[in-house]
Amino acid sequence: MAKRIVDGIEVEPGSGNVFADLGLPNAHRLKIKSGLVIEITKATRKLGLTQVEAASRMGIPQPKVSAMLRGDFTNLSERKLMDCLNRLGYDIEIKVKPARASLGHLVLSVA
Fold it and tell me: Model's pTM, two decimal places?
């Protein structure tokens, strides 16, 4: 998309992936992981868990919970984040289908 002027300020629309817009490596994976962390944050709030309680339930140390809730989730894999959601009472479904292009992609969908 092209840049445009809004209220006298030049604006360039985002791609839908802020990590890619910032030029970060592995932007697609960061988007998936951040989506999982957002859901973990919502789940812990909905369940009214303290960080210590959440850590115990998710099977990770409290300092990792603290870091994750502050946005530092680089030390946790996608698989571990999915495991955390499972332990918080959430189901995860993975759907595999042929890609439209020669290279497939991973999409996080939240119900």
Answer: 0.80
Q: How many residues does the chain have?
A: 111
| pLDDT digits 0-9 by tens, 92-109 | 988 888 888 888 877 777
Q: 47-68: buried (b, 16+ CB within 10 Å) or exposed (e) per residue?
A: eebeeeebbebbebeeebbebb
On the question of pLDDT at 53 being above 70, the answer is yes
Pairwise CA distance, residues 18 & 42, whole Å: 20
DSSP 105: -
Alpha carbon dihedral 94, 99, 101, 102, in 10-degree steps, equals 90
Q: Which two tokens stand for residue 69?
A: 């809730």
DSSP one-letter code for 4: E
Contact indicator for 49, 56 with CB cutoff of 8 Å? no
| Cα–Cα nearest to 51, from 66, 68, 71, 38 | 66
Residue type, 48: G
Res 110 pLDDT > 90: no
Architecture category of domain 26-87 in CATH: Orthogonal Bundle (1.10)
